[in-house]
Design goal:
With 249 residues, the chain is an alpha+beta fold. It is built from four helices and nine strands.
Length: 249
C-alpha cells in the first residue's frame, strides 16, 4: 500500500525519534517572541507562551542596572529610556488578549521589547568603558598660606583626585568665595591658574570661579594632581571648593 503524499503545510519526519523541525522552530520563536503562528489563536491573556520574552526583557534590564557604572545621571537617560520601553512593551504584550490584535503585531511588539532591552545592555556596557566618571567626591584640595583653610593672593594649592585616570581627560570646575563676606568683596575679581605638575602645555590662566576647564591626561597612571595658583587682591582671604570633577574621553 502506497502512503499518501503529505498535504501542503504538514510536518514530515523520518526515523523512529526524528524531531518535528517545523514544530521545534515555532516553539523556539514562541519562547522568545511570545505565542507565534499556530500558538497565536490558542494563547490567552497571561498565557505561559507570553512569559518567556517578558522574563528575558526583565532579566536583561536588571543586569544592565545592577552593573551600571558611576557617572552623571544625564548620560544614562537614553539607556534607561530603552530599558523602560522594553519593559513597557513586554508588559503590554503579556496582558494583551490574544484576539485583540493581529498575530504579526504581537510578534513585532515582543521583538521590539527584546531589541530595546539588548540595546540597553549594550549601551550600559559602552558607558562602563567610555562614559563619564564623576570623581567630585574623591577630590581634595590642600595647601595655602593660611592655616584655617583660607587662601590669599599667590597661594599655591594642590588638587588631588584619588581615582585612577581611567579616561583620557579631566573636566574641572572650582568655586572661589570670600572667606569673610561681611568684611570683603573680592570674589568677582579673583582668578586662578592651573596646570598638571611638570607639564606647562596644560596650563590655563585667568580662570574665574565657576568656570569649567579641562586637562588631557595622556595615559597618566595613578592619582591625578593639579597645581593651582590663586590670584586675588592684597589682603583678601578666600575659600576654594571643588564644584565638579569628571573623567571623560
Amino acid at each position: 500500500m502506497t502512503a499518501e503524499p503529505p498535504t501542503r503545510g504538514d510536518t514530515v519526519t523520518h526515523g523512529d525519534n526524528s524531531p518535528a523541525i517545523g514544530f521545534v522552530g515555532k516553539l523556539f520563536l514562541s519562547v522568545f517572541l511570545g505565542d507565534f503562528v499556530d500558538f497565536t489563536d490558542q494563547a490567552k491573556r497571561w498565557s505561559g507562551w507570553n512569559w518567556p520574552p517578558f522574563l528575558l526583557v526583565v532579566s536583561l534590564g536588571a543586569y544592565a542596572l545592577i552593573y551600571a557604572p558611576d557617572g552623571p545621571a544625564r548620560q544614562f537617560l537614553w539607556v534607561h529610556l530603552a530599558l523602560g520601553t522594553a519593559v513597557a512593551l513586554a508588559l503590554v504584550r503579556l496582558v494583551l488578549p490574544a484576539r485583540s490584535t493581529r498575530a504579526h503585531g504581537r510578534v513585532l511588539m515582543s521583538a521590539a521589547a527584546v531589541i530595546c532591552s539588548f540595546a540597553g545592555v549594550v549601551g550600559m556596557d559602552h558607558l562602563a568603558d567610555h562614559g563619564e566618571i564623576d570623581v567630585t567626591g574623591r577630590t581634595r584640595i590642600s595647601g595655602g598660606t593660611v592655616t584655617d583653610s583660607t587662601v590669599t593672593d599667590g597661594s599655591r594649592l594642590r588638587l588631588v583626585v584619588d581615582s585612577p585616570a581611567d579616561r583620557s581627560r579631566l573636566r574641572l570646575t572650582l568655586t572661589v568665595r570670600d572667606a569673610d563676606k561681611a568684611a570683603q568683596f573680592c570674589a568677582p575679581e579673583t582668578r586662578y591658574s592651573a596646570q598638571l605638575p611638570g607639564n606647562t602645555s596644560t596650563r590655563v590662566d585667568d580662570v574665574r570661579s565657576g568656570q569649567t576647564i579641562g586637562f588631557p591626561l595622556g595615559g597618566l597612571q595613578g592619582a591625578i594632581d593639579v597645581e593651582i595658583t590663586l590670584l586675588t587682591e592684597e589682603g583678601c582671604r578666600m575659600n576654594v571648593f571643588v564644584t565638579d570633577a569628571v573623567l571623560h574621553d
